[in-house]
Amino acid sequence: MFRFLLELFALIAFGIWGWKQADGWMRFALAFAIPLILAGLWGIFTVPNDPSRSGAAPIAVPGILRLILELLFFALAIWCLSELDLEVVSIIYGILVLTHYMLSYDRIHWLLTH
Fold first, then answer.
1. CB burial class (10 A; 0-12, 13-18, 19+) of residue 51?
2. Gyration radius of the chain over CA positions
3. pLDDT digits (tens, 9 = 90+) for 59-111
4. Where are the domains of the chain?
5. pLDDT, tens digit, 9 for 90 and up, residues 18-63
6. CA dist list (Å): 85 to 50, 75, 89
7. Cβ(47)–Cβ(59) below 8 Å
8. Are the beta carbons of 63 and 47 closer than 8 angstroms?
């Protein structure tokens, strides 16, 4: 549940960042397209039988690749928050992400061995 909330917050950060990058209709396009594309990548590239997910893997990837994808996803969200001049929020979010991965050491071990 905690990771899901972190994922949702990241998608919101991507959308806000996209909104701030342009004016007019392009603002709407970026605010929706960026989170949609990143959510798609998040959901498509998975490790088969991942116990933290449904088990389905539309595009199966090794665990290490999935872990790298997750870390890049969250790092990008932290960067977006920082670019939005929300440094305190980005630091708190980064600490929450780090805490999540520290508490999920069993999942990290599973990813590294699959």
1. exposed
2. 15
3. 889 999 999 999 999 999 999 999 999 999 999 999 999 999 999 999 899 99
4. 2-112
5. 999 999 999 999 999 999 999 999 989 988 888 777 767 788 899 9
6. 36, 16, 9
7. no
8. yes
Going by the DSSP 8-state scheme, the letter that residue 86 receives in this structure is -
Structure-block tokens of residue 65: 């690749």
Task: Describe the crossing of helices 25-44 and 2-20 by its angle, rounded to 10 degrees.
Answer: 150
Amino acid identity for residue 12 in this structure: I
DSSP 1-61: -HHHHHHHHHHHHHHHHHHHT--THHHHHHHHHHHHHHHHHHHHEE-TT-TTS-S--SEE-
Task: Give the position of tokens 């989170």.
Answer: 35
Residues 6+ apart with CB under 8 A from 61: 45, 46, 47, 69
